[in-house]
Amino acid sequence: MANDSIKIGVIGGGQLARMMVPPAIHLGLRISVLAEAAGMSAARAADAVGDYRDPETVYAFAETVDVITFDHEHVPGEILRELEARGKQVHPRPDALQFAQDKILMREKLEELGVPVPAWAKVADEAALQNFIDAHGGRAVVKTARGGYDGKGVRVVSEAAEVRDWFTALAEDARGGFLLVEELVDFVRELSQLVARRPSGEIRTWPVVETIQRDGVCAEVLAPAPVQHASTLDEAAEIGLKVAEGTGVTGVLAVEMFETRDGRVLVNELAMRPHNSGHFSIEGSVTSQFENHIRAVADLPLGDTSMTRPAAVMVNVLGGPSEGTMLARYQQALAEHPAAKVHSYDKQSRPGRKVGHVTVTGADLETVRAAAVAAAAVFE
Amino acid sequence: MANDSIKIGVIGGGQLARMMVPPAIHLGLRISVLAEAAGMSAARAADAVGDYRDPETVYAFAETVDVITFDHEHVPGEILRELEARGKQVHPRPDALQFAQDKILMREKLEELGVPVPAWAKVADEAALQNFIDAHGGRAVVKTARGGYDGKGVRVVSEAAEVRDWFTALAEDARGGFLLVEELVDFVRELSQLVARRPSGEIRTWPVVETIQRDGVCAEVLAPAPVQHASTLDEAAEIGLKVAEGTGVTGVLAVEMFETRDGRVLVNELAMRPHNSGHFSIEGSVTSQFENHIRAVADLPLGDTSMTRPAAVMVNVLGGPSEGTMLARYQQALAEHPAAKVHSYDKQSRPGRKVGHVTVTGADLETVRAAAVAAAAVFE
After folding, report:
1. SS3 sequence, B170-195?
2. A contact residues 327-366, partner B, Cβ 8 Å cutoff
3. What's B200's DSSP letter?
């Protein structure tokens, strides 16, 4: 890379790409985005529009930048390996990213690393699935190995026939394949550990946070996670480091975990990019997940991840006002909640859609949470 | 303005325009910049390039946005009045902006408002100037009424002949005019009060800060200003409010003041835009000057201006590394100063040029200042 400019290319034009732009502006790094369609959330930075599944589109975009990173995990690994073969920096590297792209590879890797996970199996047919269900209390969680997010590609079932459509689709796929089935974990809450890791191996972690999901979608994040058993948070942090080092991730990694009723911590999902559980860090941390992600992928030293104030709570705006964008409610929301940091992804409202979020920071988690919930509620 | 989008147009492509972009992205407001030249600091947002002194260029740019604001005060008032006549929102309005464009109008307005200023006069020839100098201790500060900034257009003189070139230039200008002469104030330090004001009249102020100048250019800002006499800071804050209301400014106003050895506060300069003395607010305040500026010009409610931590210190990077941009020193600077927030304006180094700044926040002003000075020094 030239000494007087580093240009980062982000594949995917959603809000994660959008939120990488402000720290790039402040640091004087150049950033451009390959968006799936015109008018997406990161349009401010979108210099190119095209299909990330088309190799030539991706190769042409890569020619215009120094390093490639991602807004999502859906770019096919073979395209990314070809980019590396052509000498392009790609972060996370495809050998790491596969563990976030394929949930079965992820489960196998986590077991290899000795990281606690729910009981699981890969199943190729209804009989195998039914055996697992019967052996684990009569209900289980079934997931497609690829393509799921925000509760999509996930079903809780008691009969194998409830995912017959997924088995049919697998049978029609020339690559064949398996579904992932997991025990239904009896958890008391969910935790997330964010980690940033550079190609050089330098690592920084943010405090473990508690995430509150509704209908399989992140609704609130409490940072730091309230202490119930100190050892649980320490264990969650250790798991985050172990996964970052074991997978060789570069950029930001989010490790989502269950805290079980009997005090165990089990890894649920991995994401190798900035993650909804880290949005609090824009105001809540000295260095946000977005800034450390771009520092990491540009192989620059990572910033301090301390909290700026003792507590930060982020509340997602899901759906948004009945028409238009969040802007339709700004007069009320900003007047009533001057201390709330309001983020709009400039998306049209749609039931359940993540159209923005609100973060409040302060001295006390309960006060801050009430303020963030109230401010976000103006947009519902 | 439509309910689902507000597009802000910024005239001028410098670092102030550049730093308006991140809060616009977070709030989901659209922003575009009319830059003087391609490749300027705000290039990320520069949708147009052209001369702001050319009326048709400005009118065409204004057609593409909902509201016009500024990176500098140099757009001719007659162009802005025509924009208003055409029904365009312009903030600050030309009737307010004139007090930041013309230092003689500014002095007259401040006197009318009863705001303390240094002894001054407008002088049309060397004889009048020499009379003022002789009556004020044999030395005085002479300023051109228009076009000065960062020490340019300002000379400390003891003989009127030292500004003969300026009088000659005035004589050649068909509009004629005056130079401004002021007593040389015996000050102990300089203060700045930032104020944001909406068209509706809503006002918010940040804490009064101390600014430290070197060679007429801002070098450091201490926020909040250390208390020497509490009444002095209160008076500075009152002056800020009086000037904001008295001039009818919309957007951010910076009032730069001298604190004199005998305990008075005198207004030195006004700026009607985000100002170098407010850069600390990006990390140091719940709502930065850049966010409240765009909220104000879009007539949205203003955000909380409280400090996020007890102290913030900003240190300018003046000149930059001997070649290239600040990026050439990022490996060292970011590794040694992980808690420093480094801002590069993506400008090539040049002696004395403002190419970026560093801000550190924390519990204690002295510690924070030492850290910010050390981090900025890596770029010298």
Report:
1. HHHCCCCCCEEEEECCCEEEEEEEEE
2. 327-328, 330-331, 334-335, 338-339, 341-346, 348, 356, 361
3. T
Radius of gyration of chain B (CA): 21
Beta-bridge mates of residue A67 = A8, A89
Question: If 0-12 CB within 10 Å is exposed, 13-18 middle and 19+ buried, where does residue A148 land?
Answer: middle
The answer to whether residue B345 scores a pLDDT higher than 70 is: yes
Q: Which residues of B touch A348 (CB under 8 A)?
A: 4
- Give the pLDDT score at B151: 65
Closest of B105, B133, B30 to residue B270, by C-alpha: B105
Contact A348 B22 (CB under 8 A): no
What pLDDT, on a 0 to 100 scale, did the predictor assign at position B131? Answer: 97
Q: Residue B215 to residues B158, B311, B318: CA-CA distances in angstroms?
A: 19, 26, 11
Between A and B, how many residue pairs show a Cβ–Cβ distance under 8 A? Answer: 137
The rounded distance, in Å, linking the Cα atoms of B46 and B11 is 10
Question: Which two structure tokens, joined as six digits, stand for B130?
Answer: 């020499």
Q: Which amino acid type is present at position B76?
A: P
The domains located in chain A, with CATH, are 7-90 (3.40.50.20), 119-183 (3.30.1490.20), 187-377 (3.30.470.20)
DSSP state of A127: H
As a whole number of angstroms, the distance between CA B353 and CA B218 comes to: 11
From chain A, pick out residues whose CB is under 8 angstroms from the CB of B295. 334
Instruction: Please give the average per-residue pLDDT across A243-263, as a whole number.
Output: 95
- The CA-CA-CA angle for residues A197, A199, A202, to 5°, reads 45
Query: Quick one: which of A69, A11, A64 has its CA closest to A42?
Result: A11
Q: Tokens 């900034």 sit at which residue?
A: B149
- Decide if pLDDT at B14 tops 90: yes
For CA atoms A105, A108, A112, A117, give the dihedral sign: positive
Phi-psi region for residue B121, left (φ > 0), alpha (ψ -120 to 50) or beta? beta
What 3-state class would DSSP assign to B291? helix
Shortest CB distance from B330 goes to which of A21, A300, A335? A300
Contact A346 B21 (CB under 8 A): no
Q: Is B33 on the interface with A (CB under 8 A)?
A: no
Among left, alpha and beta (phi > 0; psi -120 to 50; other), residue B147 is left
What tokens appear for B362 in the block? 């924390």
State the average pLDDT over residues A213-223.
Answer: 93
Please tell me the number of Cα atoms within 13 Å of A366 on its side-chain side: 0
Q: Letter for the amino acid at B132?
A: F
Hey, which residues does B251 pair with through a beta bridge?
Answer: B197
* CA–CA dist A312, A286 (Å, integer): 12
pLDDT in tens, A42-95: 876 777 899 999 999 999 999 999 999 999 999 999 999 999 999 999 999 999
CA distance B343 to B359: 8
ipTM for this prediction: 0.94
Contact B244, B203 (CB under 8 A): yes
Supply the pTM of this predicted model. Answer: 0.95
Predicted confidence (pLDDT) per residue in B280-329, tens digit: 999 999 999 999 999 999 999 999 999 999 999 999 999 999 877 899 99
Q: Report the gap between the CA of B2 and the closest CA in chain A (Å).
A: 9
Q: What is the pLDDT of residue A377?
A: 97
Closest residue on chain B to A6 (Cα): B327
Token pair belonging to A5: 């400019």
